[in-house]
């Protein structure tokens, strides 16, 4: 009976009753391609995800609910790259060299990273839906503190769920005439693992994609089919709350709301691309696992197995690139992190401008130096007789602004 390795190598152990004269070895071409691609993808992915974590955690205005989920996703992707990508480099040229403890821990970390990344994508999809489609509730629900609690629950749940892999894997040895091949594989027949694989496939792939498809459809209907009116007369109407506003104030408010809508669309498109890439890049591996669970003998084409592995590593490495390409504010944050420029405080400059809170918030979001995923679903209400001070930390001037 053949056993499938539980790790992302997608290898298969030798049939126990079968005797071979020499150890099976990957061709030189497969070894070179695997090593080069794995080193490049994992190197880019590790550096990019570390940058995502640094720019969000070290920059106060980047600490938003959506960005918290992106940090959780970045940590999960780092675990996948370190626990799946790098061990594959050594395994392609030799047998398993990490021992029994390494087999347990690496397998556990692989599935932990996979499951957390799936849950994080589902979490920020739900958060975007609430923020855009239920903007009033979002002011109380979509908060940083709540996002941190949800992330903590996700990590605790997945950590406990993946504990089962400590009891399902073991070191398998196959003796050949010219040596012994050691693999990190199953303890028992792979047929007994079919329910586990189908459970993983359903919980961490099918359900997240169904949820994302439905919610992003609802979000698209709000953002692209029912945009906010841009005509000041349509927005003001005869509502008493707008009585006494000057025409210039209304124009500024409408312009800022238009900018906020553009920002929301940009963020939603970026996150939707992340979900689509997750679905496409994980599809080969998920499909192969399901098919091989039903087929006997399983499909073992070497180049297709390599393609599945590279898709998994690419999914964990590509997200920071998407942020950089589709978000001007993440791009600015990455640029500042690379340049490592020191900010020198200067004399504070006071500005007194009659403006509304929605204009202040939207103007902050429109700035290319601020977080792109900031929650921007607030109404337009005037602030009367109130002074707001804030420091422009993104710019090198470090100037203090006050808006009355």
From TrEMBL:
TM region(s), chain numbering: 32-57, 69-89, 95-114, 150-168, 196-219, 267-283, 303-326
SUPFAM superfamilies reported in the protein's UniProt record: Family A G protein-coupled receptor-like
Protein name per the record: Thyrotropin-releasing hormone receptor
Location(s), subcellular: Membrane
PANTHER family assigned to the protein according to its UniProt record, in alphabetical order: THYROTROPIN-RELEASING HORMONE RECEPTOR (PTHR46061:SF1)
Assigned GO CC terms: membrane
Domain of life the protein comes from: Eukaryota
Listed GO MF terms: thyrotropin-releasing hormone receptor activity
